[in-house]
Task: structure prediction
Amino acid sequence: MGMETPPLTDEQLIAQVRAGDKSSLQAFHDRYRNLVFTVAHRVCGQECDAETVLVTVFWEIWRNPSAWNPQRGSARTYLLLLTRSRARDLMRSERGRATAQRTAGEELSLQKNRSETELDPSEQLFDKNRSMRLREATQTLPDDVREALDLAFFAGLTHVDISIRLGIPLGTVKTRIRRGLVQLRERLTATKDDWLIQ
Result:
């Protein structure tokens, strides 16, 4: 019976990730997934999604594997620092935009889902005008931003789902959605459509 091949060290795995080997990233992910998730959940508590931090951390490893320098500490130590940092970033970001995004998101969903039969004629006219202004404002957004908003609010996808669907980093998805909501608010405020920001 032959001897089993010993598992690759962290340094060997990261060297292969640096060379573009996705299977090595998967092996590194499998090795440290539970650690990263646990730390992220401990830092975030109820305020952010540990899965989001998990995806962000390993995306960053894939995008920039050279950021870890073995001479300055172990991979475990580097991941702990990176996870805490990204979890705190997410908490700050979520707190900063939660109210605005929730309000705008609810209104966007309302425009898609409200049935006109529930409204009296004057409300129907107001709602139709409001929907038209919202559509016009949305059409002025860059294509990539509009696509992210559509997937988030109309298709009901999570940020992680959108990241996978579009093949872009999670941070980029969040940036596009945040930018889109800010730009919508600016456009609608400029035309006195303050219903979106009440």
